[in-house]
Amino acid sequence: MSDHAIPLDAETKAVEMPEDHRDELRLWLRLLTCSNLIEGEVRRRLRERFDVTLPRFDLMAQLDKAPDGMTLSDLSKRMMVSNGNLTGLVERLVASGHLERRVSELDRRAQIIRLTEAGQAEFRTMAAEHESWIAELFGDLTEKEQRDLMRLLAKTKLSARRAVSGEA
Amino acid sequence: MSDHAIPLDAETKAVEMPEDHRDELRLWLRLLTCSNLIEGEVRRRLRERFDVTLPRFDLMAQLDKAPDGMTLSDLSKRMMVSNGNLTGLVERLVASGHLERRVSELDRRAQIIRLTEAGQAEFRTMAAEHESWIAELFGDLTEKEQRDLMRLLAKTKLSARRAVSGEA
DNA sequence: ACTATTTATTTTAAGCTTAAAATAAATTCG
DNA sequence: CGAATTTATTTTAAGCTTAAAATAAATAGT
Fold first, then answer.
1. Is the pLDDT score of A45 beyond 90?
2. Do B24 and A164 touch (CB under 8 A)?
3. Does the distance separating the beta carbons of A148 and B152 come in below 8 Å?
4. Which of B80, B93, B99, B104 is a good FRET partner for A150, with 20 to 30 A between their CA atoms?
5. The HTH marR-type domain covers which part of the protein (chains A, B) (predicted)?
6. d(CA A129, CA B23)
7. Separation of alpha carbons B85 and B90, rounded Å
8. Chain B interface mutation, best of A19, A29, A140, A151, highest count of B Cβ atoms under 10 Å
């Protein structure tokens, strides 16, 4: 398994010896550093260039893919944030004219949220620039490196999901 | 460069044609998903097992590595969060008995923050378990995959840093 | 020594985020 | 039908986070 100098109990396996997981910890910290570094820069640029926050951008991105609108619950599931969080986020984006809400005709509890025309236009401008920022941030990786990273992250995602759910 | 069907201006390069950066965007979204998935699970477990938040855990982790304590500014730089953020975080951990602060003798503006004995003991218990959670979350990756991922993330970090600073 | 600047920290205002409790409409089932 | 449950959403309380303004002590330059 590991080449590290883990004290072993002579003949047997590492009995009662807590395993050394420092490598995994380093891997996690590096993954987190990358993610935070990029996310932080994207936040900064969104604010600087468009005076918009990342959560608002993410919300608009979801709605841009759903021209007929979505309910708060749908959005909540897609974005993996709480319902209460979305309530406030949508409120502010309605106030600023980016979103519109109407009560569902089929279910009087639910609301359908949509981008306004102005909201969509603004989002698409931002999205185009955002995409080029991401390309710039990953720019020093070759195509092969990008593919490899993609594959390894796919596996990481599955591994984490397995551990998050009851697991095996 | 890319195999994709980007409309080209016959003889020349892709003149005035915005490039397709969807692959980089997908890569970024996958990286973010992995990071959020793991971070969310770590937060959940820290809360469930130890009733502690991730920011508090991170703060204690920094202080555990500095037995003689650190100033708020040092902590701020190390943790890459704002000074104001730390003010509140430290306040709450002092109140709960995990940290102690004393005014620096050399500089009456500065405070030296340290883990209390109780705080250190509690942190080390948490850290040991935390490390095993991380190993579990990355558990499905082989050692080679972990090494490869480590290397690719190192390169990603450099790439992002280059783009964040003025760049080339 | 005095003024200007820098550095360490706190405060403030705004927004993001969550879990848990509350509301209210829809659905299920006896 | 009518009670019990589920589902959609909002509210609440607490904490995290930041940028920008405010304080206050230290340092530098004259």
1. yes
2. no
3. yes
4. B80
5. 24-158
6. 15
7. 9
8. A140
Report residue A110 as tokens: 């639910």
**Residue A140 CB coordination number (10 Å):** 16
What is the third-level CATH fold of A53-128?
Answer: Arc Repressor Mutant, subunit A (1.10.10)
Which residue in chain B is spatially nearest to A133 when comparing CA positions?
A: B163
Residue type, position A164, single letter: V
Closest nucleotide (C1' vs CA) to A91 is D10
B124-146 pLDDT, tens digit each: 999 999 999 999 999 999 999 99
Is the dihedral angle over the CA atoms A6, B131, B152, B140 positive or is it negative? positive
Domain map (residue ranges) of chain B: 44-135
Name the pLDDT band for B10 (thresholds 50, 70, 90): low
The yes-or-no verdict on residue B4 having pLDDT over 60 is no
Among B47, B68, B63, which Cα is nearest to B126's? B47
One-letter amino acid of B114: R
Residue B90 has which token pair?
Answer: 């430290």
Radius of gyration of chain A (CA): 22
- Choose the weakest-confidence range: A78-82, A89-93, B9-13, B23-27: B9-13
d(CA A151, CA B146): 12
A-B contacts at Cβ under 8 angstroms: 176
Q: How far apart are CA A36 and CA B83, in angstroms?
A: 18
Written out in words, the top-level CATH class of the domain with range B44-135 is: mainly alpha
Question: Using an 8 Å Cβ cutoff, are B17 and B7 in contact?
Answer: yes
Residue A70 backbone class (left: φ over 0; alpha: ψ -120 to 50; beta: rest): beta
